[in-house]
Amino acid sequence: MNLKFDHIIHYVDGIESIEFPHQYIQSIQGGKHTQLGTYNQLSYIDLHYIEWIDVFDAALARSYAQTEEGRLSFANTFKDTHVQEGFKRICLRTQNIDNVKTHLEQFDLDIVGPIEMSRTKPDGTMIKWQLLYLDDKQDLNLPFIIQWGESDEQRAASLKANFHDDLSIDEVTIQVKNIHESSQNWQSWYGLKEIEKSENYIKLSFIEDDVVIKLTEDVEEKYTTLSLSSTNIKKTRAFYLKARVTNSKLICINTEIDALNNNA
Q1: Nearest of 25, 21, 60 to residue 41 by alpha carbon
Q2: The whole model's pTM is what?
Q3: pLDDT above 70 (res 81)
Q4: Which of 20, 27, 122, 134 has the lowest CB atom count within 10 Å?
Q5: CA triple 77-204-252, angle to 5 deg
Q6: Order of strands, sheet of 222-230, starting from the edge strand that comes earlier in the sequence
Q7: Is it the case that residue 95 has pLDDT exceeding 80?
């Protein structure tokens, strides 16, 4: 099984007023998920991207979350009326979602899907994909699986004009209650491998993807940080990119600077 990092979801209450340096990261209009009551903007780094998502119909989102196919979806985030902005979940990409489901069924997991999805883009064209959700009854919304209706090569060709060629996504930091248990589970479930370990964190990597998953231990389970590198930002201008939230952050730094120890 060969999964790749696809995207990270960030909820924004008021998507038109996202605050981050537009001279470094641009977003494009995505579209509406009419069955979920959500709409989005997308920042493509390459085929890795940030999905800025908002809700245009909270009642519809909560209603969809009550359905069998929606109970583990992003819409389930809105089962509570007061949802805090921030990173909510990551998505991993596959070319064979049925094989992934067969693999996951050997574990004690709640699985929903594959679910056929589609979205109409602002230009009127439709994109299609399939989703597979899983849950282990812990607090964290586990990474879910996507299979796009087009190959990576086809998608790259059509999206390349939106890529940030000077940026790359390096690392996603995730708080979990037990880093050792989560590390073992994620290696088993997602085919990740351990590449670095300390008293405070464990880093996991994909077989054919450079994005690193960093697990840290905390009583509150959540996605906290997205770290990027830039070839155009000088050391003296390294900075934090914040999406108008306090509980999650993007760090954009020069490749020569240590992302997690930088205090810019």
Answers
A1: 25
A2: 0.86
A3: no
A4: 122
A5: 70
A6: 193-197, 201-205, 212-217, 167-176, 222-230, 249-254, 239-241
A7: yes
